[in-house]
Each structure stands twice: as C-alpha cells, then as structure tokens.
Write a structure and sequence with these properties.
Layout: H1 4-19, H2 22-29, E1 48-49, E2 55-56, E3 65-71, H3 76-92, E4 97-103, H4 108-118, E5 124-126, H5 127-130, E6 142-146, E7 152-157, H6 162-167
Amino acid sequence: MVDRRKMMGAAARHALALALAPSALTALAAEPGAPLPPLGSAMVLPRLSLLDGSVWGPEQAEGKVLVVYWWASWCPFCAEQSPHMDALWRAHRAQGLALLALSIDKQPAVASAHLKAKGYGFPAAMAAQAAAVWPKPRGLPVVVVRGRDGKVVFAESGSLFPEDVQGLKKFL
C-alpha cells in the first residue's frame, strides 16, 4: 500500500529542491534541532513574552489542548501551513484549543511584520525565548500537541496537509 503522505511529502521536497537556491537547501538540511518529544511525555509550560507585547503564561493552556507550532517567515512549508493553523485556532479556541506559535526568525520585528501582513491572530513568541524549556525540534514547520492532561499526544516535523491540521481537533 502506498503511503500518500510520504509520497506527497517527497514530491513537495523535490519541487522545493528545484525551486530553492543551493544555499537555502544547505541551510534547511543542516539545521540543528532536538528530537521530537516522545508521545506521553509531560510538557512543561513556560511564561513567554509575545510578539505583540503581552505575556503568555501556563494558565492560558490549563485544561486546554495546546498546539505548539514552530515556524519562520522565510519557510515555504510554513507559508503553506500557517493559514491552516490560524483557521484551526480561530475555529476551535472556544472549545478549548490553545495555540502558541514560536518563530525561529532572527529578528522579532520580522516575525511580527509577517504575522501582521498575513492577518494571523494566533499568539506568537520567539522560539529562542522558549528554548530552555522547549528546544526546537529538527525540521520546519514543527507541530507538537499537548493534551488536556499535560502530556504530548502528537508530534510531527515537516509540513502537514490541510486535512492533517484540521485533524488536530480530534484531541479536543
């Protein structure tokens, strides 16, 4: 049986390889990162300053399903996935879905400008600020879901299809 996700992912990576400059490909391939957190592991919540100047604290995810989303303004896969992440958050936050986006951009102003230009409303902070508690896993984009019980229920590195993003609501 053919795994549709692997096949499509390979095709997307191949198309990207043809489109990106060799230096960008080298940067993506050599990107350091931590392993994904194991399913069932406890996920501690830090207190972070958001890009909009407000503070995000553990109490904002208490008793909720939390989606942590590592992204960058320059990432072509993130450009495809971010609208779906924003739509998921907007549609299900009243049912207990929290989302925290962590930008790996080097400058907060770049990340803020990108969010504003795209009209994304989800809370976002700089990944470097959270690195002591949540080291960025290898790859981009990265999605980790913390269940209501505080444990990791989903962890994926790489682009998700729109239906995969929508499927995260099953953890509600």
